[in-house]
Amino acid sequence: MILWTIRHTKPYNPKDVCYGRLDFDVSPTFEEESNGALKAFLATGAKPTRLFSSPLLRCLRLAEKASTATGLTIEKEDAIIELNFGSWEGQKLTAVPRSEMQAWTSDLRGYRFPEGESFYDIDKRAGKFLDSLPDDGEFLCITHAGVIAALQHSRCGLPDEVFVEGMFSYAMVTRFEFTRNSDGQYHGTFTKIHDGIPMPKLKMGV
């Protein structure tokens, strides 16, 4: 099974706050970023038969363009929504209580954000969605850094200590190739196809 993922373009976040479930629209650079990603994706000769998108606006904007380019109908999928950062949502990272920031930096993927999720929660929900797809298909998902990283960690063997969520670029295109193992779950490999637009370094108040 082939799965293509495209991360959303840069969101409009002028106050530079933590966002996961916050439904930000796209930045003024959307056309340039989305055009570059879709051009790179189409140049591979990819032939997806279904198009899934996170229900958040920053993904749907890109999914609309992908739908036009591929002729596929957008299927909104809650399982590929971004991490819920709980009480951190809408705060600057430098304003997060020092104890909470230290707890996160000591366990980047396992820490459960207050009133929110941990990255392991994305592993579970994204993995369940992945395993529901047929073995012989080719699919496109417009989604988030947390979801793409979850597939790399939980299904492609990327070690937990390699925290890639904060290094992914906006509009990054990735190709996954999966085979269903004896456990009934998909496992495989991934290749980055398009770098996209670098995101700013996280400003952690530690």
How are the SSEs ordered, and which strands pair?
Layout: E1 2-7, H1 30-43, E2 50-53, H2 57-70, E3 74-76, H3 98-105, H4 119-131, E4 138-143, H5 145-156, E5 173-180, E6 186-194
How would you explain this protein's 3D organization?
The chain is of the alpha/beta class and 206 residues long. Helix 2 (57-70) links the parallel strand 2 and strand 3. It starts with a strand and ends in a 12-residue tail after the last strand. It has a single domain, classed as Rossmann fold (3-Layer(aba) Sandwich), CATH 3.40.50. It is built from five helices and six strands, in the order E-H-E-H-E-H-H-E-H-E-E. The chain has helices spanning 30-43, 57-70, 98-105, 119-131, 145-156, and strands at 2-7, 50-53, 74-76, 138-143, 173-180, 186-194. A six-stranded mixed β-sheet has the order 3-2-4-1-5-6, with helices on both faces. The longest helix is centred in the N-terminal third of the chain and has 14 residues, at 30-43.
Q: Which shape, going by the Cα principal axes?
A: globular
CATH architecture: 3-Layer(aba) Sandwich
Estimated share of beta-strand residues: 15-25%
Element string (H = helix, E = strand): EHEHEHHEHEE
Structural class: alpha/beta
The N- and C-terminal alpha carbons lie at a distance of 42 Å
What's the mean pLDDT score? 95
Short summary:
By secondary structure, the chain is α/β, with parallel strands linked by helices.
